[in-house]
Amino acid sequence: MGLFDRISDGLSRSRDKFKESMNVLLDRGPDLDEEFWEGLEETLILSDVGGAAAADIVERLRDQATRRALPDAYAVLDLLNDEIAATFTAGGEDILGGQPAVVLFVGINGTGKTTTVGKLAKAATDAGRNVILGSADTFRAAAIEQLEVWARRSGVEMVTRERGADPASVCYDTLERAEAEGADLVLIDTAGRLHTSADLMRELQKVVNVVRKRSKLPVHTVLVIDATTGQNGLQQAREFNRALDLDALIVTKLDGTAKGGIAAAVSHELQLPIVKIGVGEGIDDLRDFNAHEFAAALVGAFDERFDADEDGLRGENAKEAAVTAGERRRDVLEGAPAAVEAEVAEEAGAEPDFAEDAVVPAAGEPVLDAQGDVEEAFADAAREVAAEPADADLLDAALGHRTHETIVVETEEDTPAGLEAAELAELDRNAEAEAAADGEADDVPFTDDELAELAMASADGEGEPAAEPEPAGEPEKKSFWKRLFD
Fold first, then answer.
1. How far apart are CA 29 and CA 51, in angstroms?
2. DSSP readout, 346-371?
3. Percent of the residues in the chain that have a pLDDT greater than 70, as a whole number
4. Strands 185-190 and 101-106
5. Which residues contact 349 (CB under 8 A, 6 or more apart)?
6. Pairing of β 219-226 and β 248-252
């Protein structure tokens, strides 16, 4: 497994958490509005990047989006890796980079100081350096024995005293032995100290001051942070830096946490470089820190970040398909021709949404959906039947044939409630009453006066009155049902 692959695998939990938050943010759309910038800053904070670092990253991205006229959120996210990488403080190459040095490792209990010292000793010995170890953690049970195991693995000499001895005296002896042996790298493991205890921090200050005064080699104080502690690790770093004036950081246990962004928070706020990161328990899992590789492993690549599913579209294709689908939905809601909808669907690689036998309406005609427009159509038909009883038979026929070429009803449950039998009967009675009032119903009997008038008209030879001619040039106005079945 390559260097980047190992780091990426170790940061998988942190990356998954970040991707989940980003996907929620992008579900709202790609617009670069105020809501997007606030959501991006919140996502970075939830990834333990820290409030100060997150605000700085978003501010720089805003500036670039304005100066470069970035079109959408996806273009901004393409720059996110570089901006996160720029958040880390550079430097620290001379601490473990091959120059003669004395390195003191400090931190609270359980962060992995002793294991880190052992791994560094093995790597330096394999690189041909002359290394000496100092076990100044004389209080923790089995701390001396643990470092002895690493010394044997690495084949290096270790200086120690009995348990409970003064840590400063152990450091003094270690420096004298290093000068006698001509060692070019001295690694000293100090006792864990709680940053909340002023007395313990003063004891640690004494140890560091003794080493700085006694050593003829450059002295570097490195804080080892457990990434699983999250924002508490940032508070630890503040207190240790205030007491000891730290030179660099080592972040361990990144493979076991979703809080990998804490590395950026500490480095940015305290302006301290990160020299190593721990991404596993193996001896080769203590890696040199590279800001760009770390940022890429934390955020993830573009294609990986926007996968819809394992077999779905990826990256730019997914983004293009999503935009196309949004245009199709807007066209349908706004009454665009179905032919345009079919063309857009074909470009996106999807099948048209309407049925094969559906009639494509001409441009400008509304597109009927399967629910709301059918209900409105039946309501219009009921009003026309009330005005024109002659079309009542068409309504009866339509109730038995509710699926037409331009109105597609997919299931029986989706069919509009329409007019129930009782409602139809009521409509018929109302229509007959209105027709009777107007003298238009065929089955209403003539009164005696009407029969007398008809007889007199027949006797005079006047006959029936001529029908009133329809205005010339105007097309016949058809009812809804005639238009529907023509």
1. 24
2. HHTT---SS-TTPPPPPTTSPPP-SS
3. 60
4. parallel
5. 321
6. parallel
